[in-house]
Amino acid sequence: MFTISLRPSTIYRAAGFFSLYVVSVLVSYFSFTLSRVVVREPVSPVPEERAGMFDLSPIPTPASPTAYHILLLGYGGEGHSGGRLSDSLTVVRVEPEKKRVVLVSVPRDLWIALPTAGRNERRKINQAFALGGGELAKRAVSTVVGLPIQYFVAVSFDGLKEAIDALGGVDVRVPKTFDDPYFPVKGKENETCGKSAEEVEQILTTLKGFEIDKQFPCRFERVHFEAGLQHMDGETVLVFVRSRHSAEHGGDFARNARQQAVLWGIREKLLALGALDDAVAFFHRMSFAVETDIDEEAVRRLALLVGNTSDYAFTSILLSDQSVLTATTTLDGQSVLLPNEGEGKWEGVRAYIAGELEKEND
Fold this sequence. Notes:
Layout: E1 3-5, H1 8-27, E2 36-38, H2 48-51, E3 68-75, E4 86-95, E5 100-106, E6 111-116, E7 119-124, H3 128-145, E8 151-156, H4 157-166, E9 170-174, E10 178-184, H5 197-206, H6 210-213, E11 220-225, E12 228-232, H7 234-242, H8 251-273, H9 276-285, E13 291-292, H10 296-306, E14 313-318, E15 325-329, E16 335-339, H11 347-361
Parallel strand pairs: 3-8, 5-14
Antiparallel strand pairs: 1-2, 3-4, 4-5, 6-7, 8-13, 9-12, 10-11, 15-16
Domain Cell envelope-related transcriptional attenuator: 86-270
Keywords: Membrane, Transmembrane, Transmembrane helix
Pfam family, one: LytR_cpsA_psr
């Protein structure tokens, strides 16, 4: 574990950059302090000689980049099932010359080859962080989107809640009224709901995936959101962006859209803070540990390049089965997403993203 301490002068110079950065960070479950950045559990990068074994082809950073890319990873953390799996993956593209930020939402169910105990195995991309930390996650996501990713930042669900509450909540425009009767209750992941050991065993051996969940209703609660502008505290935002099983607005693609709605709410709230002193005070209130490979030198360099962020435009790109992906099921019953061209063929996804970026320039 190591700590980077930023002097007050650095905090003020970098506050503009991080105002823009944290807007993106929060919507994908991330944020970090300007006074203290801590890496909780440093992980070893995937050795160069091993990287090619796993069908990963990340894009190298050019000598003179005109855009910078940061991978934001949200994960459950302690007390959550699959705590190191990435519940959210978003690439933040910052274009200083064009004064633009583009968010590329990457579905967690993408099927990709990842290193597992020295073998090449197909897995969901949300396992990359758990298997090889931020370095492997950067390689995997860069392979999919065709963009060089220089940095990563990761934070747990509790980090999201604390950051939103530090803002005093945010106003979010809910795109569609929806109910979710299967929102997980923390701490009840292993409840048997009155079933005997034999009944539990029967369920686990005869059913798969969500069908198993349905047999244990006491592990879940019903949540409801009305369409329109809603004020949300940290806990409510967390439920809003994590909900998956709504008949009206469920699944990962709907979650990505909801994350974008939270983004705009956070952006408006940060703009409402107004004075620089208020923004710096906000960051100090959010002082907690995150995992990142951004060091103090990178903070200074990016702050200088990005400059004043008040006039930056924010846009987004969503990868879905309505554009470049196909939903399917693996032999063992997992719901996964493949590129339309076929498993492991990311050229179409990369071309789509490049085309959307060009469109935004018109």
